[in-house]
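Researcher: Here's the sequence for the chain we discussed earlier.
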Amino acid sequence: MAFVVSWIIAAISATGYMGIAGLMALESACLPLPSEIIMPFAGYLVSTGRLSLLMAATAGALGCNIGSTIAYLIGAYGGRPAVLRWGKYIFFGERDLERFDGYFGRYGSAAVFISRLLPVVRTFISLPAGIARMPFLKFQVYTFVGSWPWCFGLTYLGVKLGEQWNKNPTVQAFFHRFDWLVVVLVACAVGLYVYRRWLARD
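Model: Thanks. This is the structure I predict for it:
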């Protein structure tokens, strides 16, 4: 875990705000790279004085817009067939699309704003928004306005954790107890991917 943490911090530190935006763009393009990991590490660098809290949150939100635009365009121009064809590679199937379609159909354009404040849902809501051809400008505005508080909150959490990490060795010792858990979770994720690919082999 310590190695992974150091690598991510080093990557964001080397690329700064562009790196934050790029990583968040990947997350919002429906790739399995959680913002719950990216932004707190950015917050850690804020706690060291290398980055600005407001700028880091804004870079994250802009990255959300970039990645969400890609997902939106896939939905808008590829439609349901494209989403269903490629969705299996990111564990997004027909049931998931129906659930998100229902969510978008119930709340309309507001679903884009609301979803940006919710884990998991925030990543995939761009697909049904694109399929429904939500007005593009409204999509961009709702995405940014909804993503910024999410990015700010996670970054601020990282700031506070970073301050405690630097000041309190007990905090470091506590998190090191979970090193083994990270290995188990990664192994489970790989196993799940292989299993689902095996089921979809036909």
